[in-house]
């Protein structure tokens, strides 16, 4: 079983394409999947009896193969089915199961339930009798293991079609959007990837563990990166961004009014557009607490006119015309939350992955679509989706800290897509280390430990 961190994400259609490109038959792939499932269930189920709930398609076929393998290992295993198998591979797999098959609606519960009813490709809610039976069996089980996806989840957009859930989900061959996009992702429990011999590759992946490096022995404060933070009407927001950036950059310059709580290491100066012309500046962060008046708009115009990498957050996003970014020669990273994203790029029915991708490609910038399922999108169409979540991050000011982390990484010359992805990982890890009921002000103090975990 493999952790899905850093692994490719494939939609249902792309997974079918990958399976077809493998050159293996459906029966061969099913045999591999069933064998891998049996090994995983054998480890997870301890000495308990296992009930495998099989559907009529290939997901059910995987279940029949796994049940036969578990029986061969000497496990106590039963099979229940919602319907007769309908695909050739599933029919062959059913023939390989020597035991009885109970009707799903009358199946006796077991301590371990393996949900192999419906996996990748489901597009409608379960029939009510199947849904009710699955709920009943799940409620009576001590452990629910889903094959590929808990039955009732939409693969590609993370929608919940029927109430469902699992303690462990065994993803087959590749992660799917539903494993990382809410609300579906919250129903998957722990997710582990099983290798079924299919080469999975694509533009989308689960956000990997951040990878940082120790400063070179001959490094100095400017070579490590200089960040300019533009302050505005709410100086506390810019101060939090500056304090976060200071944990990663060699020099942080706060331009404009500031609070007294800033570390002395942060240099403070009056705002001046001319200051942004300093060639030592490696990145500019604008937006946290900026305001939305004419003064704020003039500061944003000055920042956009520079040839410095730019992080645009908060209020600046409300003043921005995304079309202006297409002509910028320097890297630009946008960090909108859901409301800011909708104001910039509009609403849509597509998944968060597709919406973030379209926004990034359209404006030629890296877009960090913030939320419990944050998506980082590159202007070339690649995306990374964060799967580790800390609900305490739903607090005012945490986005300002993230903007500062992005700026700190970007100032050292990092690729903007990598900088944004690593910033999201560090931000979440700092929140995890902060524990419960923290303030956004607390996060910079926990960045040190998060950074150390990446070296």
From TrEMBL:
Domain YjeF C-terminal: 204-454
Protein name: Bifunctional NAD(P)H-hydrate repair enzyme
Cofactor descriptive note: Binds 1 potassium ion per subunit.
HAMAP family the record matches: NADHX_dehydratase (MF_01965), NADHX_epimerase (MF_01966)
Species per Swiss-Prot/TrEMBL record: Sphingomonas corticis
Annotated residues for binding of (6S)-NADPHX: 58-62, 119-125, 148, 237, 289, 337, 400
Protein family according to the UniProt entry: In the C-terminal section; belongs to the NnrD/CARKD family.
Function summary: Catalyzes the dehydration of the S-form of NAD(P)HX at the expense of ADP, which is converted to AMP. Together with NAD(P)HX epimerase, which catalyzes the epimerization of the S- and R-forms, the enzyme allows the repair of both epimers of NAD(P)HX, a damaged form of NAD(P)H that is a result of enzymatic or heat-dependent hydration.
Subunit structure and binding partners: Homotetramer.
Binding site for AMP: 370-374, 399
Keyword entries, A-Z: ATP-binding, Isomerase, Lyase, Metal-binding, Multifunctional enzyme, NAD, NADP, Nucleotide-binding, Potassium
Enzyme Commission numbers on file: 4.2.1.136, 5.1.99.6
The keyword Metal-binding is annotated on this UniProt entry: yes
YjeF N-terminal domain mapped to chain residues: 11-204
Reported cofactor(s): K(+); Mg(2+)
Gene: nnrD
Pfam family, one: YjeF_N
Domain of life of the source: Bacteria
Reactions performed catalytically: (6R)-NADPHX = (6S)-NADPHX; (6S)-NADHX + ADP = AMP + phosphate + NADH + H(+); (6S)-NADPHX + ADP = AMP + phosphate + NADPH + H(+); (6R)-NADHX = (6S)-NADHX
PANTHER family reported in the protein's UniProt record: ATP-DEPENDENT (S)-NAD(P)H-HYDRATE DEHYDRATASE, ATP-DEPENDENT (S)-NAD(P)H-HYDRATE DEHYDRATASE FAMILY MEMBER
Binding site for K(+): 59, 115, 151
